[in-house]
Amino acid sequence: MYWGTLGTVRPYSNFYPDRDVMEIVTALENKDTVTLLRILTNRNNAQRQVIAQVFQELTHKDIITALKKALSGDLELLLLELLMPPVEYEAYRLQEAMVGLGTDEETLAEILSTRSGKQLQSISAAYKE
């Protein structure tokens, strides 16, 4: 695990990425948001990264592109964020915190004060991409 803790989402013990991908494909075709949420919120980040890779291998499509095509609004944003690797997500949060007229000091303080030097270097590299 990236941050050294298990967090609140534990690895799904009955994890079969091929099955998850096939369910996701069907859910995207049917705009079945309940199934998408059930799968992606009950897998930890490492498992979601495997799902994204297997999705690419089985469908020859990018799961991010497929989600953007099928969804919109807050649900789309939530699922896209869930599929980000932790370092990319933290970099994204920093970028979002500094967009617009004001800054989100709370988010900046949370990330910058609770991550180790090594983690901040990784986030910085992802931020620059």
UniProtKB/TrEMBL annotation:
- Record's GO cellular component terms: cytoplasm; nucleus; plasma membrane; vesicle membrane
Q: Which Pfam families match?
A: Annexin
Listed GO molecular functions? calcium ion binding; calcium-dependent phospholipid binding; phosphatidylserine binding
Q: Which InterPro entries match?
A: Annexin (IPR001464), Annexin_repeat (IPR018502), Annexin_sf (IPR037104)
What are the alphabetically sorted keywords of the record? Annexin, Repeat
Q: Which residues form the signal peptide?
A: none
Keyword Repeat in record:
yes
For this chain, the family text in UniProt reads:
Belongs to the annexin family.
Question: What is the protein name given in its UniProt record?
Answer: Annexin A2-like
Origin species, per record, is Pundamilia nyererei
Q: Which gene encodes it?
A: LOC102209558
